[in-house]
Amino acid sequence: MDALKEACDFLREGDRFLLATHRNADGDGLASLLACGMLLRRMGKSYLMVVSDPVPEGRYSFLPGLPEVFSCRGPLPWRPERAVVLDTPNLERLGDVTKLLPKAGCVLNVDHHEDNAFFGGINLVLPEASSTCEILHSIFSSLGLPLDGDVALCIYTGIAFDTGGFRFSNTTSKALHIAGDMVELGVRPDEVADALFHRRSPEAIRRLAEALSSLEFHCGGKVGMISLDDVTSEDTEGFVDMVLFVDGVEVAAFLRRMDGGSFRVSLRSRGDVPVNKIAGRFGGGGHPRAAGCYVHGDICEAKRRILEAIREAVRCSGI
Ligand SMILES: [Mn+2]
Prior knowledge:
The protein is α/β, with parallel strands linked by helices. The chain has 10 helices and 12 strands. Helix content is 36%, strand content 19%. A 6-stranded parallel β-sheet has the order 3-2-1-4-5-6. It has a 6-stranded mixed β-sheet with strand order 7-8-9-10-12-11, sandwiched between helices. Strand 11 and strand 12 (290-296) form a beta hairpin. The model has no long low-confidence stretch (mean pLDDT 95). The structure holds manganese (II) ion (MN). Residues 28, 87, 112, 131-132, 162 line the site of manganese (II) ion.
C-alpha cells in the first residue's frame, strides 16, 4: 500500500490528534501545521497544534489559525491518541514536544527532507516535494476535500517559503502549478512575499548589519561565514542567504549564539557541497542546499569546529 493512502487511512481512522512541527518553526513548518489542522477540522476530528518554542509571531501573523498553536509548557488539555509530525526530519528536531508523542506506531511522519529518519509508524516522506505543504495538498486531493481560501493561503505560503519565493532548485513545475491553483483560490502572491520576506523590524536590519560586519572568507573565497556572538530575540531568518549572494561563495554559514552557551548554525550551499552532511556531523540536518545544527563552545571554538567540517566537505566535493 502506498504511503499516501496509508496516511489518509491513518487520518480517517483516528479521532484525537496531536499535530507538531520542528523547533524554530519556519514558514513551511507552521503553514503545514495549520493546513493539517484545517484538514482534520474538516474531517470532524479533534486536534492540538503544538511547538516547543514560543510561537513565532510577527512575520507569520498573517497565517490563519496561528493563535490556535500553542507552545508546550505544562500538560495538554486532553490526551491525543495519534500524532502527525510535519516537516521534521528526526525526533530531536521536535524539542520538548517529543515527550508528548504517543508510541511510534501511532505517529504519522509527513516530510520532504531527504535525510528523514522514518521515525513514524507511517512515513509519508517525499524528498521530491518542494515543501511539506505540497504533500498536504496531495492529502487534501486524495481525501477528496476541496480547498478554501485559508487552506490555499497556508499551502501557498509553505511552497513560497521553502522555494525562497520560487527561486531555489526545488521550484518544480508541480510546485508552480499548485501555487497557481492557490492564486486561483484568492491568494495574493505579492502580499505573501511581502509578509514572508520584506517586513523586517528596524532592529532586525541593524542585527543583519552587525552580522555582515563579521563576514570572513575561507577556502579561497568559496566559504563565507558570519556570526552574532550575543543572544538576540530578533528574527534572523535569511541572514545566511546574504552570504551566499557573494559571487564565488559555494558554502555560507551563520553562527548565532543561543541561551545556554551553544551556537545555532545555519548553512547554505549553491549546490555542489551538500550542507546537510555537514550539519549531520553535529546532530543536525536539513536539505543539501539548506541545513542547520547546534555547536557548543565559545565563538572561536564553534567557528573552528564548523569550519573544519566545511573544509572537509568542500575538499570531498572537489570544487
Ligand atoms: Mn519544509
